[in-house]
Amino acid sequence: METEKLTELKTGPANGAPEPLEPLIYELGAPGRVGVSLPKTDVPEAELPADLLRADLDLPEVSELDVVRHFVRLSQLNHSIDTGFYPLGSCTMKYNPKLNEDMARLPGFALAHPLQDPTATQGALALMYTLQQWLAEISGMKAVSLQPAAGAQGEFAGILMIRAYHLANGEGHRTKIIVPDSAHGTNPATTAMAGLQVVEIPSDENGDVDLDKLHEVCGDDVAGMMITVPNTLGVFETHIKDIVDAIHGCGGLMYMDGANMNAMLGVAKPADLGFDVMHYNLHKTFSTPHGGGGPGSGPVAAGEKLAPFLPGPVVTVLEEGDDENPPLYGFTMPEQSIGRLKAFWGNFGMMVRAFAYIATYGAQGLRSVTDHAVLNANYIRARLKGVYPMPFDRMCGHEFVCEGHWKDIEGVHALDISKRLMDYGIHPPTNYFPLIVPEALLIEPTETESKEACDRFVEAMLKIAEEARTNPELLHEAPHVTPVGRVDDVLAAKQLVLCCRPIPEHGA
Amino acid sequence: MSYIPHTDADRAAMLEAIGVGSLDELFDRVPAALRFPKLNLPDGLSEMEVAAELRGLASANVHAGDYAIFLGAGAYNHFVPSVINHMLLRGEFYTAYTPYQPELSQGTLQAIFEYQSMMCALTGMEVANASHYDGATSLAEAATLARAVHRGKRTKIILSPGIHPQYRAVARTYHQGNELKFVGDKGSATIPDLIDMLDDDTAMLVVSYPNFFGQIDDLSGLATAVHQAGALLCMVVDPIALGLFKSPGELGADIVVGEGQPLGIPLSFGGPYLGFFATRKKYVRQIAGRIVGETLDKHGRRAYVMTLRPREQDIRREKATSNICTNQGLMALAACIYLSLMGKHGLRRVAELCYHKAHYAAAQIDALDGYSVDMTKPFFKEFVVTCPRPVAELNDYLLEHWGIVGGYDLSQDYPNRANQMLVAVTETNTKDEIDTLVEALRDHEAHAGHEHTH
Amino acid sequence: MAEWKTPEDLKYTENDEWIRVEGDTAKIGLTDYAQDHLSDLVFVELPDVGEVLTKGEAFASVESVKAASDVYAPASGEVIAVNSKLDDAPETINSDPYGEGWFVEIKLSNKAELNDLMDAAAYAKHCAARE
Question: Residue A361: closest CA among chain B residues belongs to which residue?
């Protein structure tokens, strides 16, 4: 059955159907072609173990120019920060400085092997150590581990640390993690992965955590609470101190999801707010590129209680330096570490970029980053107010949520508005998140967008609101000018063509 | 300042539109006592100054650009064709987000689809996901899959001691909160020993191919035994080795995971790398991570979209298969370009070069007085050298006097392997480099031997 | 506001399953309200014949493009037939939730359990209350 589907696929489009935008790499080239030149063997050839070898390898046969053109053409089918505005809420799509790319590619970083003797890689270790210190300072936390490869892994580390802390104190009965209903899906998913139970609590009409409901679930079975600050609705919790006190009061620990740190730099330190542990997203707050879905980097920062449980290894000073000599850095495992989260030391290439970013801005600059991120978000919010319904009419952080529908217009949804924005050359906001706002559009402009860019976005949004009334079909049929029209995701899920090659016989 | 474009006039106009008098007023909701703490960080720097500082740090590292390197152990100095970096530096790829909006992301989506297809071809599996963080976390997610397939009713995962020690550690970190037990890897169990551990509580058995010591174990009969016990067989593989050796699919594997760094990704001091993950189609709804599928757009044009989304955290929340959001998108793209350039013939050629050079190096070192190489089993690009003295001492000497980064000191992970060095040889190591290594080892023994006699 | 079919001859659960009792056996499926909210279904996972269901346990799951959901047994009993047509045509649940879109047939082990279920009028109210 698989093979049938594949044959059909290789014969190209059915009669009358439009040509694919770009052939698959497997549909290019010719038998015998190779895209790279390799050296001759300069040593005597050894005998290959015939009975262990594979008969065939089903890879493309294309030239270097075939490859270059193919991937350049593919790249041109993408929207990106480098090509246009990208107000994707909770993702912080800020400009990714070019310098940082060059720095990560310096041979001393890009060609260093992770298992060399640490005395031979003191530059890399010094960079990691400094970044740990900087991230500790920004959060007010005691210590940082750069191990986690992404925000989700940082979260996982944080929750495992909370679990390990309670176990170490003989309180293994603390198995509940409280999560607000506005939380990112990673929070409950992380809790489940750590073997703990999720207790979801509702938000009140202001978008804050419902304090009464919170008090009801506080007890000696609570391990901790995960919360995003500012929350996913874009607002600073009014009662953050009451929330922290309630959880600490019942013996739980506070986890801060750092997804929204772009609204916090130099404005408040998570540790000062009472958090025990948090993660950063270097790919959001500190401008390391999203890469079309990774790599990210999600360092985890911990206060006094949880620092010994950090994932490791982390970089520490083995011998203090003096005026003449730099310190000697090395890798050590925190005392009661939850363990390793990945091989080697974390996504080092992302650390280089984040280091360059923080070094560029410095203390005052980082505060200015947050100032302008929040300024842009509030500016757009103010300009869209009265046109798009807003569930929470108050000052926002670096993002805000509005609703992509109108009571008096039947059949226009957030999805239609999102797709229509594409026709104006703008990437849609995050839609249908947070789940608690109907037809949510979560808008995050970031600080690197100019007033003109914000204005262009506002104009497009106002125009679309008008089109929703005068010509809703324009929205339903959108996008009109993108490389492909609306994509049939139901068909994709039903046919499940996940690979374009025939399945080898033995695979069945 | 830096990358913030606002002028004073912009700020004034925007604050007025918002209806506040200053930037500080935007933060009125943050408790006043905690607001605007001092950050003890250095002052900001210009682009030139930042570049100078980072160049200084980079220059303090020994690296494969200046030194001959025989260190592997999970990260390898393979050749990276120039095309890859040029494509990765296209802003349309690296400054894009996860392709949630297919109409604006066909480039990323098609590249992932092609990557998935190539990983299926390489591993002999039916489906591959869009990747995990690295080889170690792919192994951890394989255990998650095995747990899901057995609905939590089987609790034992048998690990070969020949799996990368850090991968085994990561699998244990991931599963410390659930009922899974990892066994088998504490001693020096052979493949038959692992087979003997199979029982009706075993969810999965994992072997490495080649193993951490570079050898190709005899895996005949393994899949049959694992399947008879109702368990899954997972193989941790080196993707370059699969250019030459039988695919895991052919050997009966159910899940194939591994580190994709050798496929065109720089060493980069350990990351970002690429965890690949492939399995049989019947398990596709239980695997973690992004998956791209083929479909049509509304005009009937072939198009690609992320599919099987309800497995994921943003929809399924606590019932998701994993909390993973990202894949290693850009790294998967690098691997996709690498495999396109190498293709059917090039990858085989790279693998053969590794094989020949490693065998040449092994034979030369084995011939040295005091050194021996275990060549009892077939091996690929790494081999274990038993040395006359501690590996750390040899490596210091190699680096200081010969400009060579020596092999991996196995005693760090295996206490019974004192004085054993794991040497990696790839297509980038020339005969000259290998001969120099051999000469250096001989030279050291001559000198050290000399010192010892006096 | 949309109107959902709630045939009179069925009993319903709060989780939007229906059960049609025919003597000692009963067919089970998902309601019109459920299929409407899940949107186009793309995959169904069904139990095997011979499995014994306990009232309230998740015995099947359905998946659309945007959601996945467990299906819970409205009553206990052994599975005597499964609607394998759904494997290839899960959309049948959307087009005919109370007819061709049935999930399993069970041999009821405790008919008294049916007394806790809602009738059509109560269930219709339950649907309306959630809009």
Answer: B44
Q: What's the rounded Cα separation, in Å, for the pair C11 and C114?
A: 8
Domain residue limits at A169: 100-359
Q: Residue A486 carries which side chain, given as an amino acid letter? A: R
A44/B51 Cβ within 8 A: no
Q: Is B310 helix (H, G, I), strand (E, B) or coil?
A: helix
C11-110 CATH: 2.40.50.100
- A356 interfacial to chain B (CB closer than 8 Å): yes
Decide if A80 is inside a domain: no
Q: Looking at CA atoms only, how far is residue B37 from chain C in angstroms?
A: 43
CATH no. for residue A413?
3.90.1150.10
- The shortest CB-CB distance from B110 to any of A74, A186, A382 is to A74
Query: Identity (one letter) of the amino acid at C24?
Result: D
Do the chains contact at B319 and C68, CB–CB below 8 Å? yes
**B38 belongs to a structural domain:** no
Q: For B352-385, what is each residue's pLDDT tens digit?
A: 999 999 999 999 999 999 999 999 999 999 999 9
Tell me, yes or no, whether A260 and A137 share the same domain: yes
Instruction: Give the total residue count for chain C.
Output: 131
A87 in Cβ contact with A443 (< 8 Å): yes
Domain tally, chain A: 2
- How far, in Å, CA of B296 to CA of A333, rounded? 51
Q: Are residues B163 and B273 in the same domain?
A: yes
Minimal-distance CA residue of chain B relative to A20: B302
Read off the CATH number of the domain in which B193 is found: 3.40.640.10
- In B250-390, which residue ranges form alpha helices assigned H by DSSP? 313-316, 329-366
Contact A494 C63 (CB under 8 A): no
In a shared domain, residues A325 and A373:
no
Residues of B in contact with A56 (CB under 8 A): 344
Tokens 């360059």, residue? A356
Tell me: ipTM over 0.95: yes
A353/A474 same-domain check? no
Q: Does A7 touch chain B (CB under 8 A)?
A: no
Q: Which residues of B touch C67 (CB under 8 A)?
A: 310, 315
For residue C1, give the chain A residue with the closest CA: A410
Rounded to whole angstroms, the Cα distance separating A430 from A326 reads: 46
Last residue of a domain, one of B338, B372, B387: B338
Most C CBs within 10 A among A5, A490, A491, hence the mutation to make, goes to A490
What is the residue-wise DSSP string for B163-230?
Answer: S-HHHHHHHHHHTTTSS-EEES-SS---HHHHHHT--TTEEEEEEEES-TTSB----TTHHHHHHHTT
Mean pLDDT of chain B: 95
Cα dist. B275→A295, A423, A480, B176, B320 in Å?
11, 36, 37, 21, 20
In a domain, A154, yes or no: yes
Identify which of A190, A349, A451 has the shortest CB distance to residue B14.
A451
The alpha-carbon gap from C40 to the nearest alpha carbon of chain A, in Å, equals 7
Question: Model confidence over B16-50: pLDDT tens digits?
Answer: 999 999 999 999 989 999 999 999 999 999 999 99
**Residue C20 in 3-state DSSP?**
strand
Identify whether A230 is preceded by a cis peptide bond (ω within 30 of 0): yes
Same domain, B331 and B418: no
